[in-house]
């Protein structure tokens, strides 16, 4: 299922051709020729350039201009990455484009703007309309923009020198926000009402932008879906070692930043992509090689201190409101990478899935943590189904839920922002990530499943949407769009299900299922296990 899904998306991107009525629009760079949706309900401008790649591993340059008319009616663009389903590198380095969608109904005032930043572990993914078609959000009278940014070594090689200062993928995102501020009015959007929303490392990216001076004033609200800057996969505390690892796979043995820069500059780009990739079978976190890093301070630097320290010292305005949430079975994504041999090896060698941002004083400290983790997640679980459930919960908590809770607490303790929390557990055949994982019988919502109640992926377009799914799509898109308008997601919610803001003394979660209800923080005992572990062993990252 997983291979078929992604092959369909890839080949549709390459070969699709539709006969749509186009529309033209003039911006300072030149004339754009977009298109109308089949229904005529919205316009789309696909692959609109927002910046130039002026150098590999360098921050983006000014947006290009053109003579005549640029056709942005169809198609998609991927940044360079390894497409694991056909086992080959794909994409282009010159990939800094936006997809912009605007409803065609006439409006009296400029529309709120929702900017989506995709996930993918900082090493794969794109803003393709074949996965992220916002047709349902557009019905709520908002403009939607989806962003491409460089990934892998091309976005996150961090040598902390002039040749590869690091975090250029985040700098791409900042450049996109600046472009949108300057140009969204031409599309009918309001630059003073901009909401970022993203999933997984897209959410972590938004979290970094939220607290970075480089993005100050470029957006006004944020939605962090299943990710934050405090999750282990959102920071690399030793980027030179990561670069050295990939260089060794290419046949070079050095830890010198200048020598590494020379290697990455002269080696073919496809070879870098191949050397950066590792199969996730029985090693779910193998591909997470290049990630955000702490940069040498400069006017362009996005991250200049450890994530926890940044949150503690950030000076965020009380006018900013944030939604932070996650799904009930996030860990399906990672647990699905293990076969029966892998499960057995994990329980015998649990250390391989201990988060790397835990620092134990000695072997006994680590063994104590492992014994406690096995007790919390695997005690009295003897059947394979029970062990799988424990592994799913472990991954859910360690890599998504606890970091999201901690981020919420830091924002409430150290800043003036308001936070809404949610807990998505709706289960349906529309939970595309779970359907593709091979664990479709596990109840609940996998990592990224909530996205398919905000967007319409191509695989669902020819299918009839069942009544309950239609209701969930309407709920999700209404809450997200209402939040983008005024920072309050309660527009259509009744007093019984009113989404209550969290406070430091009481984290309130809107449980999103067939019925909506506000609950205390779910899985509190498991979250407290991680809280205690990080208080004892956590690093500054």
CATH homologous superfamily? Answer: Alpha/Beta hydrolase fold, catalytic domain
Alpha carbon gap, first and last residue: 37 Å
Outline type: globular
- Which CATH architecture is right? 3-Layer(aba) Sandwich
Into how many domains do the coordinates divide? Answer: 1
Q: Give the % helix.
A: 25-40%
- Number of beta-strand segments: 15
Q: Would you give the CATH topology?
A: Rossmann fold
Protein name: Carboxylesterase type B domain-containing protein
Keywords: Glycoprotein, Hydrolase, Serine esterase
Pfam families: COesterase (PF00135)
GO molecular function: carboxylic ester hydrolase activity
Characteristic key phrases:
541 residues; alpha/beta; 13-stranded mixed beta sheet; 34% helix; disordered N terminus
Question: What do these coordinates show?
Answer:
This protein is α/β, with parallel strands linked by helices and 541 residues long. It has one domain: Alpha/Beta hydrolase fold, catalytic domain (Rossmann fold, 3-Layer(aba) Sandwich), CATH 3.40.50.1820. It has 16 helices and 15 strands. The strands form 2 sheets. Strands 1, 2, 3, 4, 7, 8, 9, 10, 11, 12, 13, 14 and 15 form a 13-stranded mixed sheet that branches. The protein has a two-stranded antiparallel sheet with strand order 5-6. Helix 5 links the parallel strand 10 and strand 11. Helix 6 crosses helix 7, helix 9 runs parallel beside helix 13 and helix 13 packs across helix 16. The longest helix has 31 residues. It is globular and about 65 Å long. The two termini are 37 Å apart. The N terminus is likely disordered.
